[in-house]
Specification:
Radius of gyration: 15 Å
Order of helices and strands: EEEEHEEE
Low-confidence stretches: none
Structural class: mainly beta
Shape: globular
Number of helices: 1
């Protein structure tokens, strides 16, 4: 599934794509929380923070943890997910909002790590996630962040 991304003038600047985890990924692909993706999702504004090509930082870097904590201080959005390669390399984040929440995108804490860009995306890509209940910087095993919306 894919969706065009447009700048503030409505010009197409690229696209976002997703596919199931069992499909071989592209060399330039990164992982996103699968709950962020919804083929029935409404159009949204996004803040997309991305590392320069071939650059990443450890997910457990203090800057990533601080950005996650700052996110919790801001009004909730429809979607927020870090972007990773492998099991422990942070390469960016995406925040999606709709309606009055779009103004919050200008205050993206993740833009302090890597530059962010505000874009608009059409329907059929981003859904709505439950608001996080606390920081998720702690991990048990490199591929397993502690659940932030439930404990099983």
């Amino acid at each position: 599934m894919w969706v065009a991304a447009r700048d503030e003038h409505g010009h197409e600047v690229g696209f976002l794509a997703s596919w199931p985890p069992d499909v071989e990924e592209s060399a330039r692909a990164c992982k996103i929380d699968e709950r962020a993706i919804d083929s029935d999702g409404e159009p949204a504004g996004i803040s997309l923070s991305l590392a320069p090509r071939d650059m990443s930082v450890p997910f457990d870097d203090l800057a990533v943890g601080q950005a996650i904590r700052r996110t919790l201080l801001l009004p909730a959005t429809d979607v927020i997910s870090t972007l990773m390669t492998g099991d422990a390399r942070y390469v960016g984040a995406v925040t999606a909002a709709r309606g009055d929440g779009v103004g919050r995108l200008a205050f993206d804490p993740f833009s302090r790590i890597f530059p962010s860009r505000q874009l608009d995306v059409g329907a059929g890509f981003f859904g709505t996630m439950p608001a996080p209940t606390g920081p998720v910087g702690q991990r048990y095993g490199s591929a397993n962040p502690w659940p932030w919306d439930r404990f099983e």
